[in-house]
What does this fold into?
Amino acid sequence: MPFIRLDKFISERTEYTRSQIKASASDGKITVDGKIIKKSDFKIDSETADVTICGETVRNQPYRYILMNKPDGYVSSTEDNDGISVLKLVPPEMKTKGLFPAGRLDKDSLGALLITNDGELAHKILSPKNHIPKIYIVKLAKPFQSKYIDLFWKGIVLGDGEVCLPARVKSMKNCDNMAFVELFEGKFHQVKRMFSAVENHVEKLMRISVGGVILPEKLGFGECMELLHKDVENLFSHPDFDRFCDNFFSEFSANPLNK
It folds into this structure.
């Protein structure tokens, strides 16, 4: 069985430091399977032990997967360098050491953002060779043109000469300046630069899915939800783009960019 020290178990799954854990144990604020444990080096079974600290349950799984509906004005970074980090929006009960945004959304962009402390999974999602699709809806300054479909699929050449991987784009029914975009990579400001290359301008952008995980309509801007194991597996599935677009309003009762 995977026996490890109690302080290691808690520190890997929470924001408590080793010294804080030791002090909490001495104060009788840590329980294992219902019993108070006063020694932080006590060995426990990391897979089965029921651990609490200061009345809060410590999850057995060391990795955490959080889906955030990113609002405008926050930066996809662990630091507050160019603005307020999205990590400031993670509720206290979901926080743990090592959380970071898996991928980027621009400061003024909205929508689905995965936050995790699982570096290996993040690498798999972000690697273009794994072809994890991400679907966006965009509001354009000028009406959508049918020629975009072929241009995007052939691989848009950006203003600096960089060539994008083939991407799908489709207009939204009854909205001539709204479109869906499906990407398999994540270059800097990519969606905006792609539409700029076809002489249009993105006024508003929102990511609504990562792989097969669709942003729930009930998840408000700035809110988070923890992904279950089945949801994490679904990150690597590939929804049918055309069907997704056609069924969009079965997932969202209204255009989320109009909120």
